[in-house]
Design goal:
Number of helices: 13
Number of strands: 11
Helix content: 25-40%
Radius of gyration: 28 Å
Bound molecules: zinc ion
Mean pLDDT: 85
Low-confidence stretches: 299-316, 405-414
Strand content: 15-25%
Strand order of the largest sheet: 10-9-8-7-11
Structural class: alpha+beta
Length: 414
């Protein structure tokens, strides 16, 4: 805004009521778009914002394309403002893990590269670290591997505390940041996914529980759901369109559970009996544990027999105990490649299936029905192994079994 020039005689200012009405309408539209679907973006924005618009105008006719381009540009700017406002308010950007290294709510490190990756914490310099869920389970929760590699996909989740997620980060990378505090994460996986080619895949998702403080010092808790489903799928669209998938049902349930806990915290504050921070955190941690067991509970209804990992390990009939003898006795044709999981499959007698990583680490052993085996071969999810891969796999297996702890003794030349 420039001030009127004092040297020139002041002309009476021309006012256009119509133009003022247009400005008022756009102002109202921007406000309502920012509040759309309960968004709190306005709370994180300054009172005065600027929207820059181009008005292509045709003098002799109405060109609809121009109107559409105008609307698109306005909506895009409001969307950018919404993200800015929410990021400021929440201390994170929805769908991204904030990065202490780049000091950004979203950057090249903030999302997993594929639908099988989960968040495994921040690196010493504060970069989000993503891990393949099978790799993660192999080292942390091997008894859950059957949920992904068994006959059927069974959704499951692991709870990781915020202390564990931040445990490696050097203090200097966290100090002075305004990111929301991660209370913990649910690392969930095994959600069935129907892809375009009709082949079932599974999706892993990270549900991060974040804490911010209101100006009055009351903690506010929110979920941040992070996942990269295979293109063209997109997590928010999937959750909006398919209400009946196990994933959508679980997300909706755990959202409500957290809203319930948040209401309890806020109503206590309204009554003047504010919950100590320790108690609030305990409350939301119990929500995380409940969210985890919710997947187990749903599962138990379908599959009571094979539920308890402990029982299965003790079971002498469990296929794992046959893994070594089956692999040693296996023929070339019994060894297959799982193209979806990038694992090696060894078929044993009586429907026993042994799953290995390509470098010979035993993932799990399970019993498959003949139909399930046939189905995977017919759909070409399991394909014959190449000669070279077969040789390498056998060598790796022998090396691991024959010389435990002295793997480096054997020099390989190829
Ligand atoms: Zn980064």
């Amino acid at each position: 805004m420039s001030k009127p020039n004092k040297n020139r005689p002041k002309k009476p200012e021309h006012r256009s009521r119509a133009a003022e009405e247009i400005h008022k309408s756009i102002q109202g539209l921007v406000r309502s778009l920012l509040q759309l679907r309960g968004s709190e973006a306005m709370g994180g924005l300054p009172d005065e914002i600027e929207v820059n618009l181009r008005f292509p105008i045709h003098l002799s006719q109405n060109i609809h394309k121009n109107s559409r381009a105008f609307a698109r540009s306005l909506v895009q700017q409001v969307e950018a403002l919404r993200i800015e406002g929410e990021t400021e308010l929440y201390g994170h950007r929805s769908g991204h893990a904030h990065c202490y290294w780049c000091h950004q709510p979203s950057c090249e490190h903030s999302t997993p590269e594929d639908g099988h990756s989960i968040f495994s914490g921040w690196s010493p310099t504060g970069i989000p670290v993503w891990k393949n869920i099978t790799t993660f389970l192999l080292s942390e929760e091997p008894e859950l591997l059957d949920h992904l590699h068994g006959d059927q996909l069974k959704p499951m989740a692991v709870v990781v505390s915020g202390d564990a997620l931040l445990g490696d980060v050097l203090q200097e990378y966290i100090e002075g940041t305004t990111f929301a505090h991660p209370v913990g994460c649910l690392l969930a996986g095994g959600f069935p996914l129907l892809r375009g080619d009709r082949e079932m895949d599974h999706l892993a998702i990270t549900a991060m529980l974040l804490e911010t403080m209101t100006a009055r010092g009351i903690p506010k808790y929110r979920w941040n759901f992070i996942s990269t489903p295979p293109a063209p799928l997109h997590l928010p669209t999937m959750l909006g369109q398919e209400e009946n998938t196990p994933l959508a049902r679980w997300i909706s349930a755990i959202r409500s559970m957290l809203i319930g806990a948040q209401e309890a915290i806020e109503s206590r504050a309204r009554e003047g009996k504010r919950m100590p921070l320790k108690e609030s955190r305990k409350l939301v941690l119990s929500v995380m544990n409940e969210a985890q067991s919710l997947l187990g509970t749903l599962q138990r209804r379908h599959d009571r027999r094979t539920r308890h990992a402990d029982m299965r390990v003790a079971d002498p009939d469990r296929p794992t105990s046959a893994a070594s003898s089956d692999v040693l006795a296996s023929k070339r044709g019994d060894t297959l490649v799982d193209r979806r999981e990038s694992t090696i499959i060894v078929r044993g007698p009586h429907g026993r299936i042994h799953v290995f990583t390509r470098n010979g680490i035993h993932v799990t052993s399970v019993r498959y029905s003949p139909e399930a085996i046939l189905n995977r071969i017919q759909r070409r999810r399991w394909t014959p192994i190449e000669d070279h891969d077969f040789m390498t796999f056998k060598e790796e297996i022998m090396r691991r079994w024959n010389a435990p702890g002295s793997a480096q003794d054997k020099e390989e030349s190829s």
